[in-house]
Amino acid sequence: MSSGQITISHLNIVIDYSDMFLKIVEEISDVDKQDVKRVLEMRMDELKKFQRIHQILEKFVELCEVFEVNTKVIDDEMTKLKDLQKVPLCNVCRREEFIIDQEDEIKVIAFNLSNDVLKQISEIVSHCEGYFFLRLWDKYGKCATKIKKESLTIEEVLTSVWKPSLDEWSKLYERLKNGTILCIEFNTMWGNFEQDRFRKELQYFEHDKTSNWIDERIEQRKLYLEMTRYKKAIVLITEIKDSYKLSGDFDLPQRMLPFIQDHDVGMSKLDRSFADICRSLRNIDDKKIKCLRSFQESNALVLWLRSVMKNGLDELKVFVDLAYNSSGDDGMDITRVTSFRAAVTGYAPLIFEMKENCDYRQFILLCTKVWRAMQANKCLPEELELQDVLQLTIDEEEGNGQTRKVYTLDDLNDLQSRLMLIGSVVGKEDIDRFCEIFDSLKILGRTFIRMLNSGCVLFSNFQVEFRCDKKSAVCVFVSFGEKHDKKIIRGKRGTKDQEDCLFVRKIADYLTRCLNEWDSFIDAQREKHYLLNYFSMKQLVFLQCELAKLGTDTEPSVKLYPLLSAIKHDCNREDVVKSLRNAQAELMEMEKEERINAPKRDVCDDQRDMGPCQVVKVTFAIGDSCDATCT
């Protein structure tokens, strides 16, 4: 043991029983126990250093496997030391004399690598414990291998991989420490890390694991992630501020914009005061954002309401009463007035209480009042929007060219009101014709909406275009289907009836008959299949749409399975897929039997046919008034 020729297995035995060994030494008169104890400690230190270097080199070889490195000099020595217990300690370690540093005094000679190389390899293994340095190691290693086009030597790994990796890592460390690293960089590197792992990654950059900058970056990261979660709300609030020209203090949300819009801003500029804004936004979900979005997009309407209702809601009743009086018995107009009253009442805090000098905190308080109203009326955002059901397209001459102008339903309603006010003998015929056509189109539109709401898929891609110019030979285009399956009917004016409203009413009447037939069909199916009675028509339409998504790239709504649990306890996706496959197999079998047993017939005689037969039916519907051509 004194000369170092003791084998590693014998040294391990002595170390395991060191107390007993030293007691035996005490019984030997000509041996100094303290000298033996000192020699034993030296050999223990040598063995520990060798074992540590051995482990480090094993890890280093493993790290070199991600790119091509010639580690033969290490591999060969590892093979020789396979039966390590029989190897004398002096064959793997020796002590250098006159070395001040006790660590450097012990030299591992087993692998024929200098202390400097072993020290660098030890640092490589230590740094590669961190995820980010490991990425740099991989990047520069593959780059160096690509340039050399053959395996790297250990020396080349130290100069071409370790050194540039360490340089980039050190620069990143400085930027992390002083907070100049950009938010977008920071989020790209560690945005998906859990907090514990993120702290550990930062600690790999710093020997002092409790450095203040680490805690500061962790808090800034939490704040940044929270800000990005509320990105929609923050952007929308600043848009409302600009849209309504609010002069109050919105400084904090405006200062937050660069951070959440991926601009180049350093982490050190993340103000702790942003946390107050985030706390005020925590309860703003997508429904509330939609509510605010409707308010922001209705700027013109809100400004008009403010101008005509100087006393706010006190004047709303007068407007509503006048609107009801002018709507008559028209169900759609009455619904529109009701929606208008609900919208103005619900949004009243923002419409009438939001002054020009309103600041952020006052704005959030007003929003809270609106959201309370939204809880009572879930449709509030939609009621501030005007949904177009019909549109009128007119080709107008402009200069040397022709432009196309589109009038929405609101434009047409406004035009009709103005025409009724200015109507006189002059132009009365044109005004009457416009009103008759427009009223007929509204009837057709309402019937079409009822058809869609009934769940009848035959009219999903139904479209009608009317040519209201009496000089046009073709007066109507009716189309079914989509893309290559589209069928189009062109209706030409007849010699007897040339009134456009007549064509519209004929098609509206046809849709009404189809709707009645469909309703009768559904009633019959409910009687035949009692399980359908568990669902309302609206729910059946929902099931129809969502079940069609199974087997496609689009996943059905999560609401599908709870709804089906009414007829199948704890219904899940597997249950639905299995049922659809069984139904498909049953239908194929039924169709097979029908083809075998059924006599030949005209496809249009079967009212269940969803293709050309429907086109023929529409032809019959308008055929009394015009000549129809199918393409």
TrEMBL record:
One of its GO terms (molecular function) is ubiquitin-protein transferase activity. InterPro entries: RNF213. This is Uncharacterized protein. It comes from Mytilus galloprovincialis.
